[in-house]
């Protein structure tokens, strides 16, 4: 995959994410920095999906859920 296409793929996914679409993942096969950026995007997307699921559960009245902290700086899980 050419770098231009990789940047477009990641940019489009990030724009969709900023608009609330947390379902899109990116798959970059090349073994360069773009793949690392794509992997980081996917980790962010997965975390946002976890948070969205927890919020849906809370809204439905279920308070028995847990978000596992991803690091010692994880502000989301302590809320």
Please explain how this structure is put together:
- The protein is mainly alpha-helical and 79 residues long.
- Helices cover 54% and strands 0% of the residues.
- It has 2 helices and no strands.
- The chain has helices at residues 3-18, 33-59.
- The radius of gyration is 15 Å and the shape is elongated.
How would you summarize the topology of this molecule?
Blueprint: H1 3-18, H2 33-59
Helix pairs in contact: 1-2
**Broad structural category:** mainly alpha
Main pleated sheet: none
Reading the helices and strands in chain order gives HH
Instruction: Compute the number of helices.
Output: 2
Shape call: elongated
- Compute the average pLDDT: 88
Distance between the ends: 40 Å
User: Which segments are poorly predicted (pLDDT under 50) over 5 or more consecutive residues?
Assistant: none
Strand-residue fraction?
under 5%
How many individual β-strands?
Answer: 0
Q: How much helix, percentage-wise, in residues?
A: 40-55%
Radius of gyration of CA atoms, rounded to a whole number: 15 Å
């Amino acid at each position: 995959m050419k770098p231009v296409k990789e940047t477009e793929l990641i940019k489009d996914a990030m724009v969709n994410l900023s608009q609330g679409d947390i379902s899109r993942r990116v798959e970059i096969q090349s073994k360069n920095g773009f793949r690392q950026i794509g992997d980081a995007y996917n980790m962010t997307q997965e975390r946002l999906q976890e948070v969205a699921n927890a919020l849906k559960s809370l809204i439905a009245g279920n308070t028995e859920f847990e978000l596992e902290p991803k690091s010692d700086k994880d502000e989301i899980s302590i809320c």
